[in-house]
Design brief:
With about 210 residues, the protein is an all-alpha fold. It has two domains: about 140 residues, no CATH class; about 70 residues. Helix content is about 85%, strand content about 0%. It is globular. About 20% of the residues are buried.
């Protein structure tokens, strides 16, 4: 079973990486379609978390996305298979293009193809943004909505560095998690008090 997963993981990332044009967000959408919608190995919420990890980590988001998905599905072997599948097609294609660079630059057909792909890539990126934002709205969490709106305003109108936006959002999420989590010594005390209240109620009922 593990070998089957690794084989499917390698050929899936190889296929997606071969036909991905326009940046890492496109392959994130294709990873979601493959591993969430088609194979059902990951749910939408997990894919959103993995996308956030891939985006906030150094390096190309396409490779990072393949790494986190591979780690989730098959651990270290999954990471190696995902990296090989994600890196091999760009390596071969860029090597060929660099060898025939002058011919590609002057070719009218190639330029027309790139212009058409740019329009399609824009639509795919909009689809990715819509899917991620829809999950945030479904959660109905005021803080998440505030973070999303603030990040949009900071990036589009205030032109704040994206790294600072990501770090600020991560810091807010971490602070909230630490604030909402009860200390370890509080939970046993609360359970003890609840047990005492239930015991007292049973005693009164028996009386």
């Amino acid at each position: 079973m593990n070998r089957t997963i690794l084989k499917k993981l390698f050929f899936s990332t190889l296929y997606l990486s071969t036909f991905t044009f326009g940046g890492g967000y496109v392959i994130i959408s294709l990873l979601k379609s493959k591993f969430v919608d088609e194979l059902g190995w990951i749910d939408s919420e997990e894919m959103l978390d993995l996308t956030a990890i891939a985006q906030s980590s150094p390096g190309a988001i396409a490779v990072n996305g393949a790494i986190v998905v591979g780690c989730k599905l098959a651990g270290i072997p999954g990471i190696l298979c995902s990296i090989a599948g994600a890196i091999l097609p760009p390596f071969v294609i860029i090597s060929v293009i660099s060898y025939f660079y002058a011919a590609f630059c002057e070719s009218f057909i190639v330029q027309a193809l790139l212009a058409g792909m740019a329009a399609g890539v824009g639509a795919v990126i909009i689809s990715v943004v819509y899917d991620m934002a829809r999950d945030i709205f479904k959660a109905r969490d005021p803080l998440l909505l505030l973070i999303m709106g603030g990040a949009l305003a900071a990036n589009c109108w205030l032109h704040v560095n994206v790294i600072l936006i990501i770090l600020a959002a991560a810091g807010i999420g971490l602070f909230r998690s630490l604030l909402c989590r009860k200390p370890a010594f509080v939970r046993p005390l609360a359970d003890h008090r609840k047990s005492r209240r239930q015991k007292t109620f049973r005693e009164r009922t028996l009386e």
